[in-house]
Specification:
This protein is of the alpha+beta class. It has helices at residues 22-39, 56-68, 88-96, 102-112, 136-153, 172-188, 223-236, 245-263, 270-289, 294-303, 308-315, 323-327, 330-335, 338-343; strands at residues 2-7, 14-19, 73-78, 116-118, 121-123, 157-161, 164-169, 200-203, 212-215, 218-221. It has 14 helices and 10 strands. Helix 1 (22-39) crosses helix 4 (102-112), helix 3 (88-96) runs antiparallel to helix 4 and helix 7 (223-236) runs parallel beside helix 9 (270-289).
Length: 367
């Protein structure tokens, strides 16, 4: 298995992935196909991660239902380096309770203890299960199933997606009490570590769950996710570039189709429109900054259909010295209009029919 490190979103830390070879991947996938029908009927209805017929969208919608039912306080649990600290013996013991075949257990044990290669150096794996392995998601659900059973026995309502768990209660005091007791159970009974810095009891409007937040009973894209989208757009659309517009727009469309495919579940359509507006603004900045001098900017705007006097006043207006302010001007918006971007092939997720969007009486600032 090859070890690969990738950057964590919004962090300087690295996430360690294990990339198995083709033979190992086939074996692990076969073991997973054998175990899944055994454990699927046992798993909780509030568990959504890596399960057939369930998705992150389903988890977020259930979280919304719990919040609208009056459980507006959330115990946001974060497990520190969960996949890297899975105890092998405990994982095999839990699997062995339902799968008596020793050959299957031996294959799982060999997979977990096989080690990995990093830059030609062999690294043993006395604990943990490599992210990237086909078997790791199922093992994570088997290990955390005991947590699900404990929460259900206490009468708590929750949503769990892999190691991302949110428990919903009706008051702040209850949330603080549940946080202390559940964290104690996880560390003493399951042998896992709770990240005390990230785990907390918060109001639902301040909790990011799978990139979304529940505000006033509506699913909206979290501020953190919107900030990451803005950062991605800065990389995709630099302020000055001589790469052809068609090539850049195709690259942006690929990213935005995937991003909006998930975040399109938002019930605040203005958020998608703001992202699309940011795309157009950054392209306008690029068009303006590609000109070496301001008089060249005036010439370009005139060529795009603006009146010379209007273009001159706008470009040399002291209040619009910055490129950001100039890109928001009427003459720039007229020169590279929304219709022009649509004719160039810009993908508009906000134009797709969204039956779940609802009218709202509040404004969420995201960009």
């Amino acid at each position: 298995m090859k070890r690969v490190e990738i950057a964590k979103p919004g962090s300087h830390k690295k996430r360690i992935l294990g990339v198995p070879c083709v033979r190992d991947r086939v074996v692990q996938q076969s073991v997973k196909a054998t175990l899944e029908p055994v454990f699927e009927p046992l798993f909780s209805d509030s568990s959504f991660g890596y399960r057939p017929g369930r998705s992150a969208q389903d988890a977020v919608r259930q979280a919304k239902d719990l919040v609208t039912s009056g459980r507006e306080w959330v115990v946001d649990l974060d497990l520190a380096t969960f996949f890297d600290t899975i105890n092998h013996d405990r994982a095999l013991h839990l699997v062995g309770q339902h799968v008596p075949d020793k050959r299957i257990l031996r294959l799982i044990g060999l997979t977990l203890r096989s080690g990995c290669l990093s830059e030609g150096t062999f690294i043993p794996t006395p604990e943990g299960s490599a992210q990237g392995s086909p078997l790791s998601p199922l093992l994570s659900n088997i290990i955390l199933h005991e947590l699900d059973c404990e929460l259900e026995s206490r009468g708590l309502t929750f949503c769990r997606y892999a190691d991302d768990s949110n428990i919903f209660v009706r008051s702040e005091r209850s949330a603080e009490r549940v946080l202390r007791s559940v964290a104690r159970f996880i560390e003493k009974r399951l042998g896992l570590t709770v990240n005390r810095e990230k785990s907390a009891s918060r109001h639902s409007s301040k909790v990011k769950f799978l990139g979304m937040t529940i505000i006033s009973g509506l699913i909206v894209i979290s501020a953190v996710s919107m900030k990451r989208a803005r950062s991605t757009l800065r990389e995709l659309i630099p302020r000055r570039s001589h790469i052809p517009m068609e090539e850049q727009l195709a690259r942006v469309n690929r990213w935005y189709r995937g991003w909006s495919g998930y975040y399109g579940m938002t019930e605040l359509p203005n958020q998608l429109r703001q992202v699309e507006s940011r795309i157009r603004v950054r392209f306008r900045i690029q068009k303006l900054r590609n000109q070496k001098r301001r008089r060249h900017v005036v010439r370009t705007l005139v060529a795009r259909g603006a009146k010379r006097a209007t273009a001159y006043r706008t470009v040399y207006d002291p209040a619009r010295r910055g490129w950001w302010a100039l890109s928001h001007s009427f003459v720039a918006a007229l020169s590279w209009s929304n219709n022009w971007f649509a004719s160039e092939g810009m993908y508009l997720a906000s134009a797709q029919e969204k039956s779940h969007w609802q009218p709202v009486d509040f404004y969420v600032k995201v960009l």
